[in-house]
Amino acid sequence: MSVRDVLSPFTAWKNLFRDPVSIPDPLNRAAAPRYRGFHQNDVEKCIGCGTCETICQNGAIDMVPVEGIETKSGDSGLRPRIDYGRCCWCALCVDVCMTKSLTMSNAYTWVENDPDLFCFTPGVDKKHWDNAELGYHCPTDRRITGQVRAHMRELEPETRIDSFVEIVQGYSVEEAILEADRCVACGLPCATAITSAAWNCSTPATRFPASAAASAPTSARTPALPATKATRSPSAG
Amino acid sequence: MALYTPDRSQYPAKKADGTLDIDLASGKYLKLWQGPNHPGITGNMSVELTVCGDEVVEGKTHVGYLHRGFEKLMERRSFIQCFPIVCRICVPEPDFNEYCYAAAVEDLSGIQSPERANWMRALILEMGRINSYLMYLGGQAGALGLGVIGQWTTYARDLMLDRFEEMTGARIYHMFILPGGVRDGLPDGFDQRMEETLREIESTMKDVHDVMFHNAVFKKRTVGQGVIDPAWLDQYGVTGPNARAAGVAKDVRRDQPYLVYRELEFEPVIGHDSDIYTRSDVRRRDLLMSVDLIRQILAKMPRSGPLIADMPSMLHWKIPRGETYVRGECSRGEYGYYLVTDGSGFPRRVNVRGPSYTHAMALLERMIVNINISDVAALMVSLHTYPPEIER
Amino acid sequence: MEQELKPELQIRKVKGPDGVEFEVEPLRDYYCEALPTVQHGAYIQIVEDFFNWARSHSLWILGFGTGCGAIEMRPLMTPRFDAYRYGIQWRPTPRQANLLVISGYLSVKTLKRAIRAYEQMQSPKYVVGLGSCTINGGMYWDSYNTIKRLDDYMPVDLYIVGCMPRPEALLAGFEDLKKLIRAGKAEGANQYAEKFDWYKSNQKRVIHDWDMPDYSW
Ligand code: SF4
Ligand code: SF4
Ligand code: SF4
């Protein structure tokens, strides 16, 4: 212990002569441009595939029918309704969205005294952040579902001009698995075929060598995802 | 070196089964609960103290106030669905959970995260470390009645949170380190704003050094107080600054370099006296080292290149059978994830090894004996434990 | 489910300093048995309005961080966001506080403490729920150890959404709460007294080791 130890704490007083650091108006402070705030959905672009519902680990998204949107081929007529009593703003739904219709604004203030009011269908229920420009948008070059389409091999024109071999050959098993991996099992264009392919395939061995050992996909657990699907499958024609 | 003195004058006798013979009805002892609703506690936990006069004769840590059952919840979420929930395990420094989880998943599925993503990860982890230390310094000073330090460090931490916000899109739970890489690159002009923030933090630390570390009261109450005997380190699994303050250079960043730490220059910060003062000082110097590391990372990191590896579709991502343990050096010690997969789309078992558990339970219960009630808060804070991480 | 009481709560004989032995029944002797009552405004409307105005400008928050949201309170207490300029401050004990902020998820064990803290506060008192977890379970909607909807256990005046809500959102929420108080609509304490049995039965359904009096104040 020295004289310094007694005196130096008093240097704290120098802050008296410092400009205050308080934010003058915190109530109207904009969040960062990338901030993951409240959801927006372009209902015209959305096809109601339900992939966002599938990936949400909080069960925050329900697909609900929306007035004025018809069920037609390639559009289930349902739109995601988000429960903010469940959401954690992880933006997985935004990342996974098939059409990139679902985005996030950087709005963040919503106060209510009834807990049931926090369920809303973005894009349908009007909110003040619907037209906000800033906020989290999934970068165009990234999506968390497989996105590289496997190329189907072609034969030389001379060979294929008088044969069906090319069509019969189609994909190899590995390529077919890779292609099926892209399926999100939305059931919109093709009701069952691809869906079951996606659930039965193991991870493609060619692209992810370490996965080759995972040849026994029979898990004791029933995968949670198809079960939720079943509740709202009869959508598209 | 002043070591723990086993002065048993006030101490009750032991019964045959090893527990203390405390007869509450005798009026000599009193039970006192510190927490969970108490200003002198690190969070939502409590310590049940048995005191004799103002000496503590026995302390029991009670947890369970924040238990959410993460390890179980993760078993029924697919690998990508676990990613948003892991960060909630430790509130003040969430990024280590994201990193360890991502690294464990990558390890088992044979995915390599790209070089640029590794640099980004190291940057985030160091920023989180600074946040965590700033919060600690405020708490340590506050536990001894020095409230002004907390005002300064929280302000500095807030500036860092702003940097986090513009980079990751969230203030506290960044959910940025996806398995396979990171979500995004740095925003424009980030380096410059970061540099300003680092300068502000350095000047705050200078003030903290003057007012907290050169403070007669603080010294009087912390020097020689709450000593961890180096012999306990292995017995109790002490890691991180708590071990480094006892003179043992344990630092996973150097002992088993992960991410890009091999390419960075640093030396683990070491103290010798192992008391509360030394632990605070080790953390202060470690914070300044992190500031330096961030500068190095920003100078060396590649600015272009992929941010995320080529991933399979996360919706039905299965990971082969296997088990792994991934570790890293967080601000409190060694943080690790033990992950077992069984070839399905869900983790079979996840075990989180948080340093707070060992520090706040066994170690605190041992150290709390024979100290004054008014020093309990300082001692508890000096072990730097975060209750959400103790119980998950 | 009947549980055996903890030793310190059991009826026991105690010898006082004067040598006289007497019996102590902690659950009865240490607490008051009266139940909460509805308290109407006692004065004419204009006086009540003045009181409400005054109340709205002194929100004293109990510094009890129940869940993750507590970490965003610290910026509020410190110069950057400085909630003190809005008449908000933090108190260490329930007796001095009139606003209980449930900062996020509540595990069952914390719920018990939160209820006691709430009941010990003086009326008029208010409850604000922060974050998704208090609204509908949030992240932990399928956890075995958290409650899902705070409304069932305590009268909540206001919810602030976010995971976690930013300090700015918290301030906006507190400003809204002030409006409610000024309008005389923040009647949580009276609601609690009115529907006391309903709240108690909900609370006892999740708290299995109920070893405290029904109302502790
Ligand atoms: S994933 Fe996108 S397109 Fe599909 S339902 Fe959701 S918002 Fe609509
Ligand atoms: S942001 Fe996350 S939690 Fe919220 S709805 Fe989307 S996927 Fe669900
Ligand atoms: S809403 Fe989010 S931040 Fe708040 S307690 Fe729940 S998980 Fe934590």
Give an overview in words:
Chain A has 8 helices and 6 strands, in the order αβαββαβββααααα. The C terminus of chain A is likely disordered. Chain B has 392 residues and is of the alpha+beta class. Chain B has one domain: Cytochrome-c3 Hydrogenase, chain B. Chain B has 14 helices and 6 strands. Chain B has a 3-stranded antiparallel beta sheet with strand order 1-2-3. In chain B, α2 packs antiparallel against α3. The longest helix of chain B is centred in the first third of the chain and has 29 residues. Chain B starts with 29 loop residues before the first strand and ends with a helix. The N terminus of chain B is likely disordered. With 217 residues, chain C is α/β, with parallel strands linked by helices. Helices cover 34% and strands 13% of the residues of chain C. Chain C has 8 helices and 7 strands. Chain C has a 3-stranded parallel beta sheet with strand order 5-6-7, sandwiched between helices. A two-stranded antiparallel sheet of chain C has the order 1-2. Chain C has a two-stranded parallel ribbon with strand order 3-4. In chain C, β6, α5 and β7 form a beta-alpha-beta unit. Chain C is globular and about 55 Å long. Chain C starts with 11 loop residues before the first strand and ends in an 11-residue tail after the last helix. Chains in contact: A-B, A-C, B-C. Chains A and B meet through α1 and α2 of A and α2, α5, α6 and α7 of B. β5 of chain A pairs antiparallel with β7 of chain C, so a sheet runs across the interface. The complex binds iron/sulfur cluster (3 copies).
Give me a quick take on this structure.
Chain A is α+β, with helices and mostly antiparallel strands. Chain A has 8 helices and 6 strands, in the order αβαββαβββααααα. In chain B, helix 4 packs antiparallel against helix 13 and helix 5 packs antiparallel against helix 6.
Largest interface: A-B, 60 and 56 residues
Using the 3D structure, state the CATH architecture of chain B.
Orthogonal Bundle
Radius of gyration of chain B: 22 Å
* Total DSSP E strands of chain B: 6
Question: Which ranges of chain A are low-confidence, i.e. pLDDT below 50, for 5 or more consecutive residues?
Answer: 191-237
CATH class category label of chain B: Mainly Alpha
- The pLDDT mean of chain B sits at 85
User: For this structure, what is the CATH class of the largest domain in chain A?
Assistant: Alpha Beta
- Provide the structure class of chain B: alpha+beta
Counted by DSSP, the helix tally of chain A is: 8
Strand order, main sheet of chain A: write it out: 2-3-6
Question: What is the helical fraction of chain B, as a range of percent?
Answer: 40-55%
Q: pLDDT under 50 segments of chain B (min length 5)? A: 1-5
End-to-end distance of chain A: 83 Å
* Whole-number mean pLDDT of chain A: 73
Order of helices and strands of chain A: HEHEEHEEEHHHHH
Bound molecules: iron/sulfur cluster
